[in-house]
Amino acid sequence: MPMPASRLLKTVRLLAVGSILGLGAAWAVHLWVPGDIGTQVTTASIGGPFELVDQNGRTRTQADLKGKFALIYFGFTYCPDACPTALVAMAEALDQIGPLAARVQPVFVTVDPERDTVEHMAAYVAAVDERLWGLTGSAAQVAQAAKAYRVFYRKATPQGGGEYLVDHTSLVYLMGPDGAYRAHFTHETTPERMAESLRKNIGG
Amino acid sequence: MRRRIFLASALLAASFSAAHAQPHPIEVQDPWARATLGQSRTGAAYLTLSATGPAADRLVAASSPVAAKTELHNHIMVGNVAQMRPVDAIEIAPGSPTLLQPGGLHIMLIDLKAPLQAGTSFPVTLTFEKAGAVTVQVAVRANRPAAPVGHGHTH
Questions:
Q1: Is the CB of B79 less than 8 angstroms away from the CB of A101?
Q2: Does residue B17 form part of some domain?
Q3: Is B102 within the bounds of a domain?
Q4: Which of the four, A140, A196, B30, B152, has the lowest number of CB atoms within 10 Å?
């Protein structure tokens, strides 16, 4: 059945508007979370200056990552589920890439500096992987680092015994030796997939 | 009097054998928890719940002597933001096991009295809306089973 011209025009117009809106939405998402797992995206401005303290009390800045790949995850040590999953996956991915792991610095930045003292971070890092930098700092320093990596965090409802949880962006970022964003993973990415992306990015 | 005692014990025996004859309506499989990392005082326990009969049920509470407070939690992602929130109940439908696993539903152990050490186990009592309470032993697993800390494998 042929469509009347006016109706056809209307349909075309609707499709056009729809795809523009769709593209707009895709672009917005693209800006916020660039690329798929393992892909390289140049438009993102993830990463930037930070000044924090590692688990040994040593000051660490983005300059310390220069020339190395970095796997960076923001979380908190009281986090019972997502954070250990992500950090253990990071460590296992590094185990899987053999000697290439020497070119990657795994970094864990707390979004809970109130509870995650240097001492706390030291005990945590020792239990996860000694290659890891466990970074903390003042509330302002942590806020600055989170802003650089576009990480959102917010204290959630207090739990029993004065404990609270922190809602936070749960992404593992892979940064290049130039400090530029290369890829990201979630805490559900398997170590195998993370290792595959690492090999691809380091080798290429 | 004697007769009444006999009757009572017969009833008791009957109820015991009835309880043993049927499998528990909810099967709990593979309960485990991560070993505590560092000084963290929270933990998460995971397991699989299956309804063995035709009836659906709900896990409404969990408790454990190892933690001051135990809550049923879900892990929801809003965009890329991880949010852990208490839930009132966890549904168990017949024919489809309910998985409590990392990154999803879990039993949150708050204010642990002592760190959870790999190789040990601890009891958790699960309370179901219909099936009542059942206590399981939760095995504490190492976070990195073959952790070669400080250096990777060579292939």
A1: no
A2: no
A3: yes
A4: A140
